[in-house]
Amino acid sequence: MNTQLLNTSAIVGHNSAPQLPKLTDSQMKAIAVTMDKLADTLAGKITTEMNAAIGTMVKAKKDWQGGPLVLLGWIKQQFDAATILSFPTPGSDVGECPDKYKVPYYRDGKLKFKATTFYGELYKRTPSGKAIEVQLAFIGLAKDDKANHTTVPPEIMSLNPVDLDRLKGTLEQERNVAVAAWRSAMGLQKQFDAVNALEFVEAMPLLDKDGNIYQAAKPIKVWSVTQPDAEWNLYSIGAFLMFDAAKAGENGGTFEALKLTVKRSVEPDPVGGANTATPINTNDTLVGRINDVAEFIVNKHMADKKRELYGLFLKDKINGANSDDLIYNLSELKLWVDGVLNIPAVQTRLEVINQKKQAA
Is the distance from CB of 232 to CB of 221 less than 8 angstroms? Predict the structure, then answer.
C-alpha cells in the first residue's frame, strides 16, 4: 500500500506540513474502484427504516426552505392588500406601528413596562399559540408550591421539576419558531414590495403547474424587466432578504444595482467617480439637490403613517454618535430657509401655490 496516501486529512491545513502528493492517473482510478466497492457494500445494508428517515429529512428541509413563502400565500388569501400593508415591518422598533414595543403592567401598585413584539402577541392569539400559552401557564402553576393546582392537568402535575423545565423549553422553542415564521413571511412581503417597486426589476416566488409554491433551495426568481431572458437569477429566501432595494433605487433601480447592494462596499472614488456624490458648486445643482431632498422627505418621512423611516432618522442620525455636525447644519439650513421664506414676495407666492395644490 502506498503510505503517501494514508491520513491525508491529518496534514491538510497545517502550515508546517508537507505538500500533499499529486496523485497519478492509476492511483485515482484505484481509489475510485475502492470507494465504489465500499459504497456498494454499505448500500446493501441500508434498511427500509433508514431510507425512510432520509426521506423525512429531505422533505423537512424542503418544507423549511419554502415555509415562509407558503405561509405568505395563505396570508394573501385571507387578508386584503390594505390589511397586509398594515402589518408592521418585522424587527422595526420605531414609528407608530412597530414590531418591537413595550406594554404597560403594574407591580406593587407601580406602573412598569415590559418589552414585547407584535408578531409574538399575534401568535399568542392564534389557536396553536393559545394552546402553548395555556400549557406554559399550567407549568408555571405546577412549579409554584403555593399555587392552587386543581386546574393543572394530571399529566403536567405528575412531572418532576426537570421534566417540567424540559417541557417548558420545548414549548417556548415551538413558539419562537412559529413567531419567526410569521416574521419571515411578512419580511418577504415587505421585501417583494420594495424590490418590485424598483423601475427595472421584478421578483416573484417560483410556482408549480398547479400554482403552488415550488419547494426548492432557491425558490425566488429576480429578473431585469428590460432583459428578462438574459438577466435573471434564483435566490434563497435568506439571500433575497439581504437585498437593499432602497439603495438600489438610489443607484438607478436596475437588476445590477440591486445585486450590488449585497456586495462589500467599495471606497469612494477620490476623483469623483460613481461612488462619490457630485459636489455642489452652482445654484442649479443646489436647486436640484434641494428638490430631491424635499421629494424624499414628503414621500418617505411625511407620507408614511407608521413613521418608521422618520423614527430611524431620529434614532440613528439625530440621537446617534457623531450627530453634532448634522444638528448644527440643520440649524444653519433652517436659518437659510427661514430667510428665503420670510421674503414678502415669496410668502405671497407660497400662499398662491398652496391654494393651487389644495384645489388640484
Answer: yes
Phi, psi values for residue 170, rounded to 5°: -65, -45
**DSSP assignments along 46-64, one per residue:** --HHHHHHHHHHHHHHHHH
Residue 340: phi, psi to the nearest 5? -70, -45
- The model's pLDDT over 245-262, given as tens digits with 9 standing for 90+, comes to 999 999 999 999 999 998
Residues in the chain: 360
C-alpha distances (whole Å) from 340 to each of 58, 333, 335, 337, 354 are: 67, 11, 9, 5, 17
36 neighbors 45 (Cβ within 8 angstroms)? no
pLDDT band for position 7 (50/70/90)?
very low
Q: Strand 100-107 relative to strand 220-224: parallel, antiparallel, unpaired?
A: unpaired
Which of 261, 192, 185, 186 shows the shortest CA–CA distance to 222?
192
Q: Does the pTM of the predicted model rise above 0.85?
A: no
